[in-house]
Specification:
119 residues; 4 helices
């Protein structure tokens, strides 16, 4: 077996740093008890944590609303709008035809209704 700089022989005595590390870990102070932490909390601190928790819940609900309803709806609406524009440009290029939208308000309203129809 060839000697490699990465392999430490198993019959080697323990290094002095490993024994000093174990004594340092043993001498670390213990963590504070929960009763001392409860003494530091006041009623205002608990109310702030409740308000903070409610704030985080409301942000989570807004995020869900955006990701589940608003973003898909807008994506579908603008995707269809882009597809209609692209198809009109293609048809104008392929055939000498001019596509005219007679009522812009009706066109936009129909697009919004179509986008919402299958949600």
């Amino acid at each position: 077996m060839s000697d490699s700089s990465y392999i430490i022989p198993s019959d080697a005595p323990p290094t002095p740093t490993s024994s000093s590390t174990s004594t340092e870990v043993d001498s670390l102070p213990s963590s504070p008890t929960t009763s001392s932490l409860e003494d530091e909390d006041t009623d205002d601190g608990r109310e702030e944590s409740d308000a903070e928790r409610e704030w985080k819940e409301s942000l989570q609900q807004l995020e869900l609303l955006l990701t589940m309803v608003v973003v898909p709806y807008l994506g579908k609406y603008f995707g269809r709008k882009c597809a209609y524009w692209g198809w009109a440009k293609f048809m104008e290029w392929k055939y000498p035809v001019e596509i005219v939208v007679t009522s812009e308000k009706t066109f936009k309203g129909t697009g919004a209704i179509e986008a919402a129809a299958s949600l």
